[in-house]
Amino acid sequence: MNNTQKILLTLSLAYGTYKVFTYLWAKDKANTRAKRHTFACQHWTKRSISTYTGVNDTPILIALDGKVYDVSEGRGFYGPGCAYNVFAGRDASRLLAKQEFDDGMTDAELDAPIDKLDDLTEEDREALDSYIGLFSVKYQYVGDLVEP
Known about the structure:
This protein is α/β, with parallel strands linked by helices. Helices cover 43% and strands 13% of the residues. Strand 2 (61-64) and strand 3 form a beta hairpin. The protein is elongated. The mean pLDDT is 87.
């Protein structure tokens, strides 16, 4: 392969990567059509955030390690039918820390005490802290997760 072919291949790969990322970004922006809701910082229970899953254009809330975030701007990721919708409207701390997906929230989960996360490994804790850092920069903090 000569230098011209290498340059053309590199440019083609760069252009392809650019197109993929711009498509995904535009898709996320298009799915962010929900009206911006302003939540006063408040105390939330697992049951109270469970109604905020993005269904019928409702806001999307996710709790992480006792903090609740409005992730509606990420509707393309967390909205109904999207890849990470399983985390919407719930305390997703353990799932994100362990990089797990489940079949969705259950009544047993809603009625259980808030997970203290005491048994997370150091690696799990680092993963969770990374998500907390991302959420605190990207999404609006709207309060704390508390017991009823």
